[in-house]
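Hi team,

As requested, here is the filled-out complex form for the 1,5-di-O-phosphono-alpha-D-ribofuranose run. I kept the field names the same as last time so the parser does not choke. Let me know if anything looks off before we queue the next batch.

— J.
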Amino acid sequence: VSIEETASNIKDMEIRGAGKIARCAVIALKEHALNIDADTPELYLKALGEGSAELKNTRPTAVSLSNALSHVMHKARGETIDEIKDNLVKAVDDFVETSIGAIERIATIGSHRIADGDVILTHCNSTAAIRTIVKAHEDGKQIRVYATETRPRHQGYITARALAEKGVPVMLIVDAAVRFFMQKVDIVIIGADTVASNGVVINKIGTSQVALAASEARVPVLVCAEGYKFSRETAMGRIVEIEERNPSEIVDITEFEGLDVEVKNPVFDQTPPRYIDSIVTELGVISPFAAYEVIRKFEEESKDV
Ligand code: RI2
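And here is what came back:
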């Protein structure tokens, strides 16, 4: 698939989920790398950089996308075009393998936090969260899951289907019913698009309300997030941009024609660390307040290139 096609699929959310976006983007960059027609290594790198920028500009919030692209671009070095190409291809293959391995590791670690008989609540559709829940089920724990519908794109349907297909009983609820059901929930398990250096978790709109309701009901909130979802930029003072998508995702805007009604569609929100019990990463379970240490660890590793 070309850069243009992948970029457009990410923008349209044909390809979605912070981890999958990152993997599909670097795979598209690899295909691009194999097809660039350039005379010098400088021109080759320039074309590679342009492809990376086009992919990066598709969606602003999930840092996994820019982290993955920066990581593989950083490794794309060499004296000759072939050398740069080989290094990029290897970096992409490694990234894809490592990121899938990270999900498995998170599932193994996170599933230890799920007890037999637990009722779980999840929001939106996170591969890392779902894999963790399914792992607990595979380990023989009798669990049930409340899956929020997740307006406006209804990613909760994908979650409900994915869990039910694995044999996990699911109760699909509207987003507004979260507080109504929270008394019956033992643990909230969700994913993340970005974890900031101060422990704030940026995830699908509504996550902070879920966390607030959980906090009120003394229900722990577990966030499943791979290391490359932690944002180094936030440690340098950068604020995470919250994507606002087209209002037509929510309602047919002709509905209010001639009236002073504005439809707002922010698609992520920020959950403060005090509402999060733990973050499960491939390195282990951490307090959200330890987010900066994860950033430092990955920073050290990237220096070893
Ligand atoms: P995984 C998704 O964003 C959801 O917010 C989900 O919680 C998060 O990415 C992480 O998903 P979107 O792409 O990487 O649906 O765990 O806007 O699959």
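Two things worth flagging: Residues 224 and 255 are 39 Å apart (CA to CA). The longest helix spans residues 81-111.

Thanks,
J.
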